[in-house]
Each structure stands twice: as structure tokens, then as C-alpha cells.
Amino acid sequence: MAPSLSDNRTLHILNAAAAGKYGVLAAIAYNIEQLTAIVRAAEAKRSPLIIQLFPSTLKQLPTLAHAAAAAVNSATIPLSLHIDHAQDEAHIREMMETLPVDSIMVDMSHFDQAENLEKTRILAKECHERGIAVEAESGRINGGEDGIADTGDLEALFTAPSDVEDFINASIDILAPSIGNIHGDYGPSGPAQGQLHFDRLESINKQINDRVQIALHGTNDFPPQVMQRCIRSGAIKLNVNKLILEVWNVFLRENASKMGIVGLIDEGMNVLQKETERWMDICGSSGKA
């Protein structure tokens, strides 16, 4: 019997979050240490968590997806494995066939709108046949970050009501709208006043009316109150990269020459776990598992 989306772990996590009106971290990991730390945080906080890997990481560390899947299967709280910003069709099909993933972001946003939708529709059908949920980006979210193509030279396009319908009709499960958010850094104070269009996000959420879930990309440098405002406006899958990983980066930079490798790994994971736990509290997912 073919797998069914009714058993999909990512969608179970997001549907529960939507019903409970809290946000769930969809946290990028680049290595086994980061993966271990974020899973420990989820267990400690009894919080659901979506583990995210970039396609570039899968090529760099081919066994990491299997380690993440093992963490998902052995956890005592709801976890899922998501591939973020998958931009190569052949690689997406390879991932579908060979990796134990729960959901994939089919990111065809570097094509024009008609081609984006057509490719998304075809790939969504193939994913669904394997019980894999699909996320897509409507509009275009500017910028770049470690592991995905930089779209900084492309015009940022806001998500319009017609985009929402077009992507829902392409059979996606999770929509990542463009509301002024960017991939990459906003600066130490976070997004500028008025940069994020919360009214647009609220309108998109109302239009969707529970047909799909909303993912928020571009959360680097977010203050807690901005994240919480986005959650109240309907975004529940919260993609985080630098937002939680920067403490890890800083710790390694400041201590790599002073500590042995074992101590560096141990303490680095503790630092990252604590920061992940802090954001689980902020987003309201602590204690929801």
C-alpha cells in the first residue's frame, strides 16, 4: 500500500500547532553536533520540532539524513525531517526515492511564475505518491544563506491573493509567502519598522482558511516580539538558521584554539541546546508534545 499523507509527520506537527496557535521551529542543522543539540532541546522542552537539512548538506554529508531519520524514529516527542530549498528537480526525485524524508520544499522560485507552478505541481504529485508533504514559496523571497542559491539580484515579489490560489491548486501542503522577509541578515535590530507586512500575512492566513499551513522564511536577527507577531498572524512553521546557530558559531570561534575537540563539541552542543530551548519557549511549543 502506498504511503498516505494522513500519516505524514510534518503535517501532524503543523496541524497540531495551528490548532494550538503556537509556532514550531523548523531548524537547520549542518552537522551531527547541531542535529544532536536541537533534538536534545526538543526532548528537554517536550516540544515538537522539524529538523531541516539543505540539499547541499546532503551531498556534503550523505549520512546526515539517515542520522536525522534515526533521531525522528527514536524520539519520545514529535519530530520530522524536512529538506529545505530543494532547487534541482533531479536531486528532488533522488531524495524522494532514496531518503527517509517527511517533507520537501520544492523551490522552483528561480523560474518564472508559470514554470514555477507547473514544475511544483508535477513534483508535488510525485511526492504525494510517496507520502511526502510539499512546501513551496509564493512570490520571491530575496537574499541568500549558507546552503541555498542567492536571489539577491532578483526582484523581490510579494505574495498576492492569486499566488495563494495558484499554489494551493498546485497541490502543495505548506506555503512560504513573501511578506518583506529576506534570506540572510536584517542587521542587529532585526527587520526595519514596516519591513514585514503583517497585514499581508494575516490576509493570506484568512484566505487560506486552513487549506494549507504557512511557513515563515527569513528569520535571521528576529527579536522575540517579531517572531510572536508572525505566529499570531498565522505563520506556524518557523524556519530558523542563524537565529539559533549563531551562538554555536560564536562559541566555536572564541574557543577553538583554547579547548580540546571533545570539550569543544560537548560545550558547543550545550550552548546550542540552551538557545534552541529559549526559542521553543518564545514560540510557545514547549510542553506541547
TrEMBL record:
Positions of the catalytic residues: 84
Catalysed reaction, written as an equation: beta-D-fructose 1,6-bisphosphate = D-glyceraldehyde 3-phosphate + dihydroxyacetone phosphate
Ligand binding (Zn(2+) 1): 85, 183, 217
Free-text remark on how the cofactor is bound: Binds 2 Zn(2+) ions per subunit. One is catalytic and the other provides a structural contribution.
InterPro entries hit by this protein: Aldolase_TIM (IPR013785), Class_II_FBP_aldolase (IPR050246), FBA_II (IPR000771)
Cofactor annotation: Zn(2+)
Binding site for Zn(2+) 2: 107, 137
The UniProt record lists the keyword Lyase: yes
Regions that span the bilayer: none
Biological process according to GO: glycolytic process
Superkingdom: Eukaryota
Pathway entry: Carbohydrate degradation; glycolysis; D-glyceraldehyde 3-phosphate and glycerone phosphate from D-glucose: step 4/4
Keyword Lyase: yes
Gene3D superfamilies: Aldolase class I (3.20.20.70)
Keywords: Glycolysis, Lyase, Metal-binding, Zinc
Family, per entry: Belongs to the class II fructose-bisphosphate aldolase family.
Function comment: Catalyzes the aldol condensation of dihydroxyacetone phosphate (DHAP or glycerone-phosphate) with glyceraldehyde 3-phosphate (G3P) to form fructose 1,6-bisphosphate (FBP) in gluconeogenesis and the reverse reaction in glycolysis.
PANTHER family: D-TAGATOSE-1,6-BISPHOSPHATE ALDOLASE, D-TAGATOSE-1,6-BISPHOSPHATE ALDOLASE SUBUNIT GATY-RELATED
Official protein name in the record: Fructose-bisphosphate aldolase
Organism: Pleomassaria siparia CBS 279.74
